[in-house]
Amino acid sequence: MNKMPLARAAAACAALSSLALAHAPALACEDCDCDDAPVAAVAAVASATTLSTAATPADDTPPAPRTKLGLVRVQGAAPSSLPTNIPTTRETVTREDIERNINATDAEDALKYLPSLLVRKRYIGDYNHAILSSRASGTGNSARSAVYADGILLSNYLGNGVSGLSFPPRWGLVTPEEIERVDVMYGPFSAAYPGNSVGAVVDYQTRMPTRFEAHAKVGFSSQSSELYGHSNTYRAWAASASVGSREGAFSWWLNLNHTDSDGQPLTFATRVASTGTAIPSGSTATPATGAVLVPNSSNAPWYLLGAGTRYSTAQDHLKLKLAYDLSPTVRASYVLGLWRNDSDGNSESWLRDAAGQPVYSGLIAIDGKQFTKLTASDFAVTREKLQHVMHGVSVKSHSGGEWDWEVAASLYDYQKDSKRQNGLTVNGVLTDNPQPGALSGGAGTLADGSGTGWNTLAAKGIWRPAGTDHVVDFGLQQDSYKLSYLTSGITGNYLTDSPGAMVNNVAGKTRLQAAYAQDAWLLNADWKAVLGLRAEHWQARDGRTDFSATSGQAYPSRSENFLSPKAALSWQAAPETVLKASVGRAVRMPTVSELYGATSTTNSLYVNDPDLKPEKSWTGELSAEQGWGALQSRVTLFAETTRDSLYSQTVVDAVLNKNVTRVQNIDRIGTTGLEATLATTDWGLKGLDLSASVTYTDSKIKANAGFVSTAGDTVGKWQPNIPRWRATALAAYRLDEHWSASLAARYSGRQYRTLNNADVNGFAYMGVSKYATADVRVLWKIDRQWSAAFGIDNLNNYQYWNFHNYPQRSYSAELKFDL
After folding, report:
1. In terms of DSSP bridges, do strands 631-653 and 615-628 run parallel, antiparallel, or are they unpaired?
2. Does 42 score more than 60 pLDDT?
């Protein structure tokens, strides 16, 4: 992480900057190319402070770095969504960190060891369930975090989580090879962001060359997975190439990446043991063997009948970036991103009849009991083809003078988004299409989301009043979202035929318009205040849900207005001690899918609510940052109260044999916690760097009058997917200029998935378990151009769950060339 770089880099930065910093507010570290300075020297990066040092002693011994409050006056031209003065906790991962310490096969892996963060990545290339979790936001709440790449929105606010449809950030629009650095800001303390920033803001900054350069990389991964008595090996490989240059005022960058991945089975066909009945006379049920009897997440016995949803994915990524300096202080930029995903979802029955043949349909008899018949919903076959396109354009002034400005626009388009699946249910009537016949055709559905997407517009300014100690960020923003998903029936060959009659249709739009201002004010040498206000106007319109060509409902338009104040205060209590207090309000608007997204398929039902209230949170934190030479630490106390919390809760309906998801407001959730970090360089041995974090969180449902199984059964229960304890640790050792190695560990305590915490067994399909895993990586820099790496993730082969099962021990190898 950026807390572990060499202390000598900080001393170098300090020596070069000390004279200027002694008399004037300093530039941010990136302005002096000191990105490797440790956190003691770059408090500006972590807490909106800047570096300063005393004069170098007569014996030329470098002085110990010290922090000093100041106003960050960034002059860089690189795109970024972050404002100039960050009023709260910030963590950073650099390209060098990723290369040395992280087995990064996807962009989200860069966040793996940051405090209090978790991405629910189930396999390499996980495109529909990789949700970001933070301090008080679980892996079911993707709309409570904000992910950007070069200032362009990647978070998918068309929905929340993976209920009904799937809405994780579009991680595939960034590859690990193009990342220059990743900045994470915790909490909704900047007025520059919507209420979705209540958890965290992640900003990927990708490479832009200053001279000609070219890179190529190939990688391979292998996972041996054994679960419920069934084992297999799943592999993935990836290749990428990038080239770029700068000639005078013009610079460009092109990145290509291809990934092929086979993931382990993620879902399982089940029957609760208690639903079995006596076999009646003349029953046509097929006696079957091979079912696995285990406790489910509620500790009730159930039979696992087979494995489902094993994805084989092929993904392509293209990124083109162009920049032209219109003048020495004004740059125009354009970004094109193209992401393609072809994914086959397959399933396999473990049941065998008397002849040893697999059983995929009909009534079944297990251990002398009869169970409901198998249908296509038990062993689904899916075929998805996605092609998404992203455009971004900006013109930015970066003079560093009294005024700077930026205008920017982006578009994310579901150019092609189709999913074909076996089995067809129309008006409650099932046309079943089980395997093996479904592998070659038959009845099914086609879900088409083409035309869905979002666009953003923004005009931003920075005012640095002459002769004052103020830096003011302000701006106007508009974010617009359109959801359009039509599911059609196909009675012939669902794999190839055109869509037939409507099965269901979901459509709607939302728009958020905002104006904000934020003033960073250096009160004196030891005190700084950041005050901000965000005004928002939200609209929802054109909402419609159809369950057939003759049964539909249109919803009236809605609009609401909100104000969200922000405030932060920093105090330089001692030369290497900074104390901070931050508070902010966040209003997270309902997404289009939550409002209008009712859907019904063969194996799931999603119940929407067009009258959902926006989610309103007050968040505060108190932080102390302390340095002891090369040893740096931070302790943060955080608290959040959220009213009308937006939740999608999925339960299994044994009668319908479906996953039923209902979206609702939870009256009040209260969270308090403590986060501590520690990092040091050259600890006890030259080249050995250590970092660690631990987070304690108490997050409980305080009031809930919404949908529950039994009145009052959720009050006092843990907020889903928030563990009480989580921790990370990373040790990195540079053996010499050619070899480096790292050992990392992650821990998360017990969690619950359901609002009433009824899922008491986390180590089961649909449960959420604790985990403790270790990862290793060895990097060999063969020469200036060639490097190779070998890694193992989940070294201890821990079997753990977050509804689905996470990967088991995985091996990776990569070879890289840099010109």
Report:
1. antiparallel
2. no
> Do 53 and 108 have their domain in common?
no
Question: 178, 242 in Cβ contact below 8 A?
Answer: yes
**Do 478 and 382 have their domain in common?**
yes
Domain boundary among 70, 95, 119: 70
Q: Are residues 41 and 82 in the same domain?
A: no
Strand partners, 536: 514, 562
The answer to whether residues 670 and 681 belong to one domain is: yes
pLDDT of res. 659: 66
CB 177 within 8 A of CB 759: no
**CA 174 – CA 204 distance, rounded (Å):** 8
pLDDT at 12 (0 to 100): 32
Please check whether residues 449 and 377 belong to one and the same domain: yes
Q: What is the domain count for the chain? A: 2
Beta-bridge partners for 810: 223, 793
CATH number, domain containing residue 752 = 2.40.170.20
At residue 707, the pLDDT reads 65
pLDDT of residue 426: 83
The predicted model gives 391-404 an average pLDDT of 93
**Domain termination site, one of 70, 100, 122:** 70
Instruction: Please indicate, yes or no, whether residues 148 and 297 belong to a single structural domain of this protein.
Output: yes
Q: Which two tokens stand for residue 460?
A: 């931003």
**Mode of pairing for the β-strands spanning 631-653 and 658-680:** antiparallel
d(CA 103, CA 812): 7
**Type of residue at 657:** N
Please, what's the b/e burial string for 180-193 (b: 16 or more CB within 10 A of its CB; e: otherwise)? ebbbbbbbbbbbbb
Q: Alpha-carbon torsion 781, 783, 784, 785, what sign?
A: negative
- Is pLDDT above 50 for 794? yes
The token pair at 251 is 């610079």
Compute CA distances 521 → 85, 515, 710, whole Å.
10, 20, 52
Mean pLDDT along residues 674-688: 91
Which residues, other chains included, contact 315 with Cβ-Cβ below 8 Å and sequence gap of 6+?
125, 127, 172, 257, 258, 259, 261, 339, 340, 341, 342
- Are 16 and 118 contained in the same domain? no
Q: Does residue 81 surpass a pLDDT of 80?
A: no
Q: Is the dihedral of CA 240, 169, 417, 801 positive or negative?
A: positive
Buried b or exposed e, range 13-23, using 16+ CB within 10 angstroms: bbeebbeebee
556 touches 123 (CB < 8 A): no
pLDDT in tens, 559-579: 999 999 999 999 999 999 999
The parent domain of residue 60 ranges over: 1-70
Q: What is the pLDDT of residue 54?
A: 29
| Selection from 134, 791, 191, 819 nearest residue 520 by Cα | 191
Whether 453 contacts 386, CB under 8 Å: no
Q: Mark whether 26 and 87 lie in a shared domain.
A: no
**553 pLDDT exceeds 50?**
yes
Per-residue buried b or exposed e for 712-749, using 16+ beta carbons within 10 Å of the residue's own CB:
eebbebbbbbbbbebbbbbbbbbeeeeebbbebbbbbb
CB distance 760 to 299 below 8 Å:
yes
Cβ contacts of 686 within 8 Å, gap of 6 or more = none
Contact between 394 and 332 under an 8 Å Cβ cutoff? The reply is yes
d(C-alpha 181, C-alpha 207), whole Å: 9
**Bridge-partner residues for 632, per DSSP?**
627, 679
Predicted confidence band of residue 93 (pLDDT cuts 50, 70, 90): very high
pLDDT tens for each residue of 737-765 = 999 999 999 999 999 999 999 999 999 99
Distance CA 547, CA 35 (A): 55
For 335-350, the pLDDT digits (tens) are 999 999 999 999 999 9
CA 810 to CA 791: how far, in whole Å?
A: 8
Q: pTM score, two decimals?
A: 0.89
